[in-house]
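Obj.: predict assembly geometry.
Materials: sequence records (below).
Method: joint structure prediction, all chains together.
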Amino acid sequence: MDSKTTKKLIKIVLLVLVISYTLDKLIFFGLNTISDKVMTGQSIGKLNQFLSVKDSVDILVFGNSRANHHVDMNLFGKKSYNMGMDGTGIAYSSTLINTLSKDKEQLVIVHIDTKNFFSKNYNGKDINGLKTKFNRNVYITDVLNKSNQIPFFQNIYYSINYNGKIIGIIKNFIRPGYNFLEYNGYDPLLVRDDQKEIRDLILAQKNNVDCESINEINSIALSYLQSIKDFVENSNKEFIFVTSPTFNDPCEKDNKLLAKTLRELGLTYLDRSNLFANKNDNDLWKDKTHLSKKGAESFSINLKKELQKVIN
Amino acid sequence: MLFNSIEYLIFLPIVFIVYWLLKSNYKYQNILLLISSYVFYGWWDYRFLSLIIFSSFIDYFVGKKIEKANGKENKKRWLLVSLCSNLGLLAIFKYYNFFADSFASTMSTLGWEVNDLTLNIILPVGISFYTFQTLSYSIDIYREKIKSCKDIIAFFTFVSLFPQLVAGPIERASNLIPQIEKRRSLNSTLVKTGIFQIFIGLFRKVAIADNLGVYVDAAYANHEIHNGSTLLIATIFYAFQIYFDFSGYSDIAIGSAKLFGFKFNRNFNLPYFSKTLTEFWRKWHMSLSYWLRDYLYISLGGNRKGEILTYRNLLLTMLLGGLWHGSSWNFIIWGGIHGLFLSFEKFTFSKLKINTFNAFGFLYTFIVVLIAWVFFRAVDLNTAINILGKWISLEFGPIFIGDINAFVNGLLLAVTGILIDLKIFSSKTPLEDYGTKFSTIRLSVVVSVIILIICLFYSTAENFIYFQF
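Observations (raw structure tokens):
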């Protein structure tokens, strides 16, 4: 390699670093401006709406897609919000709970599933769902840094914050999917007639779950649970942990172990995994994981009654 | 070590800098390349380095023996040593369980129960690639096309050179060894084309292929519940996923090699722009297809022994080409479909006295390739039959979208990739040389834009698809 080539190579490397860094910041700040105005969609709109209403509502629901599709907020009054989000787990919920104002009196329903707590593979990666707020929200940035889930390059190229979400953000910026002022975070799952056949096929498939291997609670999941418990002790809020119905739940062991763990932590837990166990009605379900609108409404009525008992 | 990993991002510049600091002596550079290549491979599993070293030793000594042997018979005996050693390793590590399982199934069908003969064998990454590479060396010496390599370090470097070690391109000794045995240089053309190709390859792999893979995996994992339309979309996505995945890998390999002063042969040349399957195979995984032509098809007699034997040779070559990809009936059927249609084309062209089809040939080729991909992607024969059954019985309906973000991202990026291919196709400049079209500043801007597209759209996949072969 002669000196001319070396110089050219160094020039290309330096130019790439400077141009890509500059472009990255332009895109990042441009997307920040756009995304801050987006209040609809799961890419960022729902999170933005949550951050804007979290300290003004009386009832909040946290959890994964099952929380999102199962807890009908229409039954809990106008001052309530369902922050259930697809693909998230206890790490995501715990981080958002810790952004709440400690003084505000609220009822917080945390939807949990045994799956995360007893999976050896759970690593808290769901916290990445908050990466759009990395380097923008102090608390979320701090938790993300501590979680070791942030790729090294995200500290250089901030646009990684918007990885995989840009189309959704732009779409919702140009054309919001719904009127967010009337949205309470609950997304019922409707099953069309032409989907019922596929749904029934899915429900008929066998579960391959090794119940015997369920022994120990995942330490990462437990640490996030502990973080919620610490928050509970220092806030004016009522916390209820809930598990919504599960289709043909094959194992009892994990439910019992999870209930025991929550009891030991002094947290209130309502396990409704088997609420529909004896109802041989496929119309309650969208698939094996999610309830249909009909199932969600039925579960939410039951949940509301149970909550009244617990709170009173 | 994966090309799309942080480890490679650190490894490549370190090796690059030390390599060019040693430019005064190419033999020192070769030692560095050999050590680096073993580190690159050992990063995955150092135990299997022994196989590469064993294979290298065998072919290094057999190559010398073939050259020195008197008479065709003696040469053939030494060639057999190479064939048996290399194919023996491949047979044990790649095909033993398949044949043991197939044997047990056949016996069971005949009423004899046989104990489970399968073994817990890990498939060493890249074994199919470096086996074919070393075999071509011995066969070329036997055919007196090349001389044996006198420098053991140069030969071992040829077998294990890290950019092409685990998934090709399958480089011929006649192309690579002469480059290893002389001083290399790096000029601005190689720098530009190399950098451009590495980043285009990364874009193809982590942005396009991995995003398409999300939908493909979801649809194929639940093929029983999806209708023909969904599975058709998934298979079309897969056709582009595997193309962008493997051609992306080849781009990174060829681009990386350029930075060390090596010129590898092209491995892809816009294969979906083909009017015939024959043309497709001149453009798809070219290093393998030309290997199969030169060392298998021609060895079987090629087209020199009459019409019927030509078809037999084509079919056999493609069946074995299928088996090379993996030890399952699906790959054999995949190869069989290609073999049958290649024979059909040969027959049609000879009868109609034509060389290619008209514009409809693009559609015909894509449909045949698509049907064959079903067998390639499906986890087993039943899955492939189920999917094709849904198409044949016209079980079409509303398309399952799943994760809308992943679906739209995959679609958008695939269209972008196809448009880039069209641009290259119309420019008449091959991708390998496309970097020369840019000034230094334009190249830097293009690479920067690619980096940002990757930041915004990258998806994560476990591996490159061709690592499993």
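Conclusions so far: The longest helix of chain B spans residues 71-109.
To do: check interface contacts against the pulldown list.
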